[in-house]
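In this supplementary section we document a worked example of the pipeline. Step one takes a protein sequence of length 294 as its only input; no multiple sequence alignment statistics are reported here. Step two produces a three-dimensional model, which step three serialises into structure tokens for compact storage. The input and output of this example are shown verbatim.
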Amino acid sequence: MKYTSTRTIQKTHDTTLTQNSDFPLHDLGEDFFAITTIEGGDEHFFNGVHRHDFYEVLWFTSVKKQEAHYIDFIKYPIADNQLFLLLPDQVHSMDRAGKTGFVFAMSRDFFERLIAADIFKLFYHSVNFSVVIPDTHDNLFQTLIKLIRQENESGKRPAILESYLRSWFLHCIELEKAVQRDDRPDSRMQVLIESVEVNFKDERKSSFYANELSLSAKRLNELTKETFGKTISQLINDRLILEAKREISCSEKPIKEISYELGFTEPSYFTRFFGKQTGFSPEDFRKKMEVLYN
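The serialised model returned by step three reads:
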């Protein structure tokens, strides 16, 4: 990803393609941080579907009416002064026309040391973190982004960048806390989502996750319904479908191979499962993504 500074986000193997992959996987190479404007960056890294191996923040300072972008195949409308945090491996696409703002990327190690624990207390890994910056805070965020850009283009000293960025994120967190108020997520549900993220391919039974939380399966389902409006089985299915969509649309792997990698003993069972959850066969979904993103 080409930035306005002398640093760049490099193309994986100079081709932006992983093995057996149709879509770009952007990476930071040996770098830990990079920043540019949405309107001034290299068009290649904004248009079309792609993934990252790092954390990325998109801050849309100004957008035309009815603008949106896609994160993991879901359409998200964009408002002026709205920011989104994209997690590593999420599938993203947007047309940068009609949008201005900033985009910055942080390596996994840098971001997770910097602020991840504080942010992940506010939202689940399965939900996208997004904040709208009110006009009363615009000067503050503009000042911080100016300091971040200046340091990035001059000394790029990690300690100084870290202090500016942590301040920037802490203000985002405070804004989100003001919105959430007493509607704070149950910490047990955060543990659950993290466990599903690790185990969804191998563990499909609610009893496994209930045991991890020292709860009965019945109580766990009550909590997930209260928090997400879904049972634990539905949460696991959602994660399986998301991973299936990523693999089907972002690689040339045979459907049979994908089904085995996701823990299905029979490809035919995976095909029925995918069809029931999405309304498409895996092959038809792949064709749909090819038309949409090419």
